[in-house]
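The authors assume throughout that readers already know how a fold can be written as discrete tokens. In essence, backbone conformation is discretised, so a fold becomes a row of integers matching the chain in length. A single example would do more here than another paragraph of explanation. For illustration, here is how one protein appears when written out as sequence plus structure tokens:

…
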Amino acid sequence: MKPFSFLFLLALVFSPAGFANDAQEKVIFTRAFADEAYGYYHAQILSRILELTPEFGAAVAEPHPQPMPQARQIMKLQSGEAQVMWSATSAEREKQLLTVRFPLLQGLAGYRVLVIHKFKQGNYPADVTESRLQSYFGVQGADWPDLTVLKHNGYKVEGLPWSLWFANMFIAVEKGLVDYFPRNVIEVSDDLERHADKSVKLEDNVLLRYPSYEYFFVSPKHPELVKRLYTGLLRMLDNGELTSYFNKHNNHRRAMELATQDTRTIFELANPGITQTFKNPLWSQNPAPMRAYVEARLKE
């Protein structure tokens, strides 16, 4: 029995499956909510990048076990407890973490529609002026870069702390504590479905637009991941998978519809916290400009 046991153990340790599992690195990403639906697209992209870049080593993406607000996510990356997060960029954020400058949401993070009380559409007529909007009170996440953008442009906006599915923001709108909650066009449809029990609605006439890009951010303790992410993104652009993944999601298709509605009045805002803008961030329609940009980053 002893020789058989030794041979069995030897075969187990050195079998391809056993070796692969031991060799696989875990790339831990942070997230705001534990629900699989939140950030599913970003997690898919991250996982596929790791699969498409085996020359950097075997790796698998895994979520951090605890959901957390953005400020705490940044701390986890700075400490090295996690390696990757995604969020809208800002100059401050790019000082804190390593940045993979590729607009994962094609710039749609900067297209904001308003969630309002369902009986208050009359406050937002088709000819509403910006000065009128600036007289109302809005709400954003306390640690979101968008809060700074809106305040910089003369909007009265307060920041609220993280809560499950942003419930405190929707409750504030419903109870009349604030007038509106700006949400990006990608997230708003799912948000309203989750909060269908509340007296809130999508406002019909207004679109706020400013340069805003959602990037992958990398822990300063894992700089090798930056090149790997750029490499994988380039490969996904070239093989069409990035566009395919983006278009799979109903909320992305609805976002494109909202962003291009010609019935909305568009108010252009400046973003003082952004370090770089892209002339053509819509890579699903024309991948060439972003492809050239990523190639340039890989040659640095």
